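Handoff note, outgoing to incoming analyst
You'll be picking up this chain. Sequence as last confirmed:
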Amino acid sequence: MDGGGAYGGGKAGAPFDPIAFVQRPQVILRALCLLFAIIVFGCISSKGYITASDGKEVCLYNGDTNACNYGVGIGVLAFLGSIGFLAGEYLFEQMSSVKTRKHYVLLDLGISGLWAFLYFVGFCYLANAWGSSETPEKGYGVNNVQAAIAFCFFSIFTWGGCAWFAFQRFKQGTDAAFAPSYEADPVGGAGYTSYPDATDAAYQEPPFNQQQQQQRGMGDFQAPAY
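Most recent structure output, in case you need it:
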């Protein structure tokens, strides 16, 4: 099935335009999601832990190991998901099946909405844990843990924006599916006729009527008497 223009995408088989691709709002947001994910899990992984006197590593978020694991986990998964959706955006124009595009859009909508929610939970969790924490000695890792909190907050809006664009795509596809497949008659236009050569006359006289009239006319003529 030809899916040209379905769900907000171009016609399948069209030549790839890299300039237009990188200018898409979906691609820009995905790139930001990818960047923010790297910052979140990178900051926590590098300086989110401090070595205690007994040699054990302690999470800087109030010693809550789950807080660090949560931040690293959603960051790594968001990183992988962003790469996958960037590849999906590249392949979206090549999807000739309308059903395949619909499944991709629904997957995009579901995962983007879910990750916006998970980042919201992560922001609240990490911010609350950091607010209850003691300042590390010599300020070790402070900038990193604060940056992770800040970019969790920013990621709420980037993933939420991706979900919004996915919803707009789904809405476009739904509207197209229920659009009428015929064109309405123009206002004041002429109606359809049963026959191409039909005229306004209700009927036409048979051709033999004219012949009968001619014969009656000749019968009425009488030769003159001498």
